[in-house]
Amino acid sequence: MKSLGKRTFHPLVLLAAPPFIKSKTGRLVSLGVIVLVLLGVAAVALKRPGDKSRVAIAAADSLVTDSTKTAERASTKGKKKGKNEKKEEPPVPVEVAIAGPRDIPATFVATGSLEAKRQVKLIAKSGGQITKLAVEEGDFVKQGAVMLEIEHREEELKLAQNKVRSQTAQRELDRTQGLMSKELGSASDLDKRKDDAEVAKLDLHMSEVELDNKIVRAPFAGQVTVRDVQLGQTVNVGQSLIEVADVSPLQLKLYLPEKMVGQLAAGQSVNLFSDVDPSLHLTGIVERIAPAVDPATSTVKVTLHVDTASGKARVGTFLRAHITTDVHKGAVAVPKKALVPEAGVTYLFIAEADTVRKVPVTTGYQDESFVEIVSGVTSGTKVVSVGQGGLRDGSKIKQLESAAGAEGTPASAPKKPESTGG
What we know:
The chain is α+β, with helices and mostly antiparallel strands. The chain has helices spanning 24-46, 51-84, 153-181, 187-212, 258-261; strands spanning 2-4, 7-9, 92-98, 100-123, 128-133, 140-141, 146-150, 215-217, 222-227, 234-235, 240-257, 269-273, 281-289, 299-306, 318-335, 340-342, 345-352, 355-366, 370-375, 382-386, 397-399.
């Protein structure tokens, strides 16, 4: 028995109505308090002899056991309940596009590099030190413009000397012809004067050529593509100096299969694109088609006239020529990025309210951004164009605003078609 003021309570009475605590942590704290109290009861009972003490100890031990089991069952029940609960997955944010009619071309792709109509490498016809260098790579020059000079003072002096000799020989010839008209000279003297005048004239022309070989001029109007020498450098006969190209317009030579050539004609336009600069879009015009097939490759050479007024294209620029062979008008088309290839099959996710449905589709022609859907969806169907990587059949979605519009409506006609082999 334990006395609390004037009233006396048995220790077991204190355990008759333990506080009800809902949380797992609360239950464990209550259990700990109960155990401590019961241990105190047992300690008091051991100090008192008699059956009542033993009964109290047994009762306390039984209550501890029952409380522990109750706490364990509550804890286990809470764990099982947590495992059986399923959290609802949040909707996946996506962008959608509307399948709609579009003209999709079939194209054949061939490659080639831009070439100048004329391109020459100028070499040194005379040796010596470069005393003047008037151009740099990329400069445009007019026909006959001086690009560089090699030391030529000796040639200038020789030219002046031969010019005097030629003039002297000509005066002697004129004087002899005057004497012959007065019958004061001989025929042999006249012939000698003629020969001297002719030789002097040839020497003068030779001096002009030697001087001209020291001055390098542009053979035609064009652009300097290569400069191999420096100011002050000594060059030898035959050494490369400068390369000049006629770059307006340029040419593109394609080697096409024989069956493709039958679909081309002179004057037909061809779209040209660059892998290096996606913004570079040129147009080539079929200028001529070779009359013979190359037996080694079974191809035919097709030369395109390429306008380079934009100034972005250069000699040697690698281009892809997209030759249209067919067009499907009004085809059902979706953005290419909406396609989901999987195990050799192509799928689309169709947006239906707040969920999606995964359907297999058959594709046809395609251009840079859009692809024709032959079967699987119809015009007006909403398809997921962005975010489909995290979807599966039946997934919940949240539609976002797309760059192409509120529903990702297909944009205008494509700029750069892709090969479909049609």
